[in-house]
Amino acid sequence: MVIYPPVAPPFRVSQFFGEHPSWYIPYGLLAHPGVDIPGEVGTPLHAGVAGYVYVTQTYLTGICLHMASHGGTLIYKHCQATVGVMGRQVKVGEVVATLGNTGAHTTGPHVHVEWIPADADYNNGYKGAVDPWPLIQEGIMELEKAGELATDARWQVEEIVRDRNAAEAMRTEAARLLAEADKLDRQSWERIRALVSTTRGKLYAIEAALGRPVPEEWEGE
Fold first, then answer.
1. Tens of pLDDT along 86-131?
2. What is the mean pLDDT of the chain?
3. Residue 54: inside a domain, yes or no?
4. Number of domains in the chain
């Protein structure tokens, strides 16, 4: 299973899974049940998994965007707002919400990323949530690979465009040279005719007057 990050890397994590137990024990949790990524209010949040989206809202967590997939449910808490029609199926990378600071249980604008796998153990002390960071790291590596492939593809496209432009320039130059060759060929035949024509060639008349045999190649006209 891979979870793609809600915002484009690089980004900072202000709180990892399992940190600050004393903050969360009063809420029936062993410690922090997700990963917090701070940012500016209104920053677009992208779907980390493909699935159906729906929204919930509580006093503590504010606006929560849920993405239900075959592998589990990914949750973005403290959103400023959701984006698009809820209940629809979204693709990875699609903007589904904006980063915010809603809910009482927040110290500043951030998105709380929480992952509850399909086979969740709801008695694990985190109400079924497990550490999403390893899966997010996998997503970051997938994005890096995709970025490398995209860069390579762009270089190849640019190289192909350069080759095609060079080929077109060569064709243009070849056409110019062919036209020049045809022109020179026509001019050379005109000059030959002017010199060796049996009816009006200057050299033909001179050679004939001198009594010399006329070369066969002169017998063109």
1. 999 999 999 999 999 999 888 899 999 999 999 999 999 999 999 9
2. 90
3. yes
4. 1
Q: Is the dihedral of CA 113, 47, 140, 1 positive or negative?
A: positive
Using the structure block, give the residue that is written with the tokens 């399909």.
Answer: 118
pTM comes to 0.72
> Is 137 domain-assigned?
no
Neighbours of 184 (CB within 10 A): 10
Q: Angle at Cα 44 formed by Cα 139 and Cα 136, nearest 5°?
A: 15
* Residue 147 lies inside a defined structural domain of this protein: no
Q: Cis link prior to 10 (omega < 30° from 0)?
A: yes
Q: What are φ and ψ of residue 3, in 5° steps?
A: -115, 120
Q: What is the mean pLDDT of residues 4-31?
A: 96
Q: What residue numbers bound the domain in which 112 lies? A: 21-131
What are the tens digits of pLDDT across the range 151-160? 888 899 999 9
- In this structure, what CATH number is given to the domain that contains residue 90? 2.70.70.10
What tokens were used for 33?
């049940």
> How are beta strands 95-98 and 35-38 bridged, if at all?
unpaired
Residue 45 belongs to a domain: yes
Question: Which tokens go with 174?
Answer: 């070849």
